[in-house]
Amino acid sequence: MIYAVWVPLLMPLLAVPAARRAAAWLPPRAAAWTLAGFSIGLATSSTAALVLLASAGALRLPLVAAFAHLSPPLLGDDSPALLPASILAVLALAAGAVTLVRTGLRQRREMRAAHAGSPDAADELSVRPDELPYAYALPGRPGRIVVTTGMLRALDAREREVLFAHERAHLRGRHHLFLSAAELAVTLHPMLRGLREPLAYALERWADESAATATGDRALTARAIGRAALAAAGTPGAVARPRTALAATAGPVPRRVTALLSTGATTGRPRRALRRAPVVALLVCAALTAGTLAEAAYDLHTDVEVAQGEAQIPR
């Protein structure tokens, strides 16, 4: 079992690059779901592996063995690396739990502070009297589009509609939950940090496409996003907003504008094969993770049954 549990713990080394490459080929919505899903799945799998590893060591403690009515010498895996690995697993679980709680509380504080600083509005639009041009989607009940007078002056009427459609797509799609889940996943497995940036990009592209569909003009959407980003780039310092609140001016804007203006021409057969390769790699990573985790759980269960005298020792 001690060897099988290492696969879920080390799988992000392979899965993260494969997920980033797959996200680059997938449509924005599919890419966002894929990245968020793998972040949660890999974090959950690695946490389960740590729990199995910690349990294997804990069962060898006399007090735990007596409580479980088992004989430690019959537990099977007597690798000298088991005890130190179990101790490290317990420490990792404790650190992850503390960081998870702290991150969740910080996200909640940021959202509350942002809502407290937003003036009440009869509709979803909350206009702040501020010369700094910025805008972002503030989730909550109700969700609001926070925009400053500076940003409104930087855009014309049609470009404002694009901006509102973009931020509205973030609110309706509940995109903050994707970012929040990815951020919480990183607290459980730091190797997943590499998925947060492509996930944020996929969410912005998702909102870009929604805005282009709502306005019916991709060129206008690209121009509005570019002008809003240029206006926001001239502000002194970063605007304080929740980390999980998305904004149309965030991320690699030139790349997003290029994607909006692209013709979307079909690609040849070799190019389609290249698109499938990262997706296949992700499926292989998922299968390996699930298989080795199930194998580790089965091995531990079998060892416990043998140590309790409920099963014969395998030969």
Automatic annotation (TrEMBL):
One family name in Pfam for this protein: Peptidase_M48
Residue stretches making up the Peptidase M48 domain: 110-183
Cofactor note: Binds 1 zinc ion per subunit.
Key words, A-Z: Hydrolase, Membrane, Metal-binding, Metalloprotease, Protease, Transmembrane, Transmembrane helix, Zinc
Superkingdom: Bacteria
Cofactor: Zn(2+)
Biological process, per Gene Ontology: proteolysis
KW Acetylation (keyword) present: no
InterPro entries: Beta-lactam_resp_regulator, Peptidase_M48
A molecular-function term among this protein's GO annotations: metalloendopeptidase activity
Transmembrane regions listed in the UniProt entry: 31-53, 81-101, 279-298
Gene3D superfamilies from the UniProt entry: Metalloproteases ('zincins'), catalytic domain (3.30.2010.10)
PANTHER family the UniProt entry points to: POSSIBLE SENSOR-TRANSDUCER PROTEIN BLAR, SLR0241 PROTEIN
Family that this chain belongs to: Belongs to the peptidase M48 family.
Protein name (database record): M56 family peptidase
